[in-house]
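Re: the request from the purification team.
They wanted to know what the chain is likely to look like in 3D before they choose a buffer screen. I agreed to run a prediction and write the result into the notebook, where they can find it.
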Amino acid sequence: MPRPTYDRMIDLKQKNKKAFTVLVDPDKTSLKKADELISLCTHAKVDFIFVGGSLVVSDHLEDLVQHIKSSCDIPVLLFPGSPSQITPYADALLYLSLISGRNPELLIGQHVISAPAIRKSGLEVIPTGYMLIDGGAPTTVSYISNASPIPSDKNEIALCTALAGEMLGLKLLYMDAGSGAKYAIKESMIQAVTSQVHIPVIVGGGITDPEKAYKNCKAGADIIVVGNAIEKDAHLIHEMAAAVHTSSALANPR
């Protein structure tokens, strides 16, 4: 099966170029608001757009994805909190396995249920090890997943979890403090993981300013995801993207 989106991620990593991603929650994004986001993302040269959330109660996810796709060339990836958050109109699907928890439903159970529909959809499927990290506050994802996050100061647990995910054949790692986290994942934990694994590492949750995004990139994150902060101030997109892309330029001097 063709994998243009994942190949793009690998190409960026091999060139040591950092990518910036905007996370769009269908419950908080009308089509009118999406137009503003699309315009800002296009001008800021955002690399990817993720669509989804831990708990999506609206019924316009498919319309939202189609609207984004028809308005820009930025790859749209599904970031589903459940098997119901699937539409064939996206470019790719982050097929999330919660490897940091011990809930069998989110490790493999829901995947068994969703596999036939996902195969039929024709989506590019990217097997992703999802690692929930303690961000200092209860989050929707921790409640819905019924899983304890990795303690923020346990770098060795995060590293061993990441290594296990890579050895099991997962293609991406997603380290997430969760929407509404009080603080972002520590740079020391990001560095501990990225110094040992070879697949792209996504980092999100609690990133509220460009400086934090920049520092996470310098610590080794390949892809930075911001959602909650942009929901509060969409114009942060340009500053966040600039910070992430600047970290790439400094890492690759001419």
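For the purification team: Strands lie at 19-24, 48-51, 76-78, 92-98, 124-132, 172-176, 201-204, 223-226.
Please add any questions underneath this entry.
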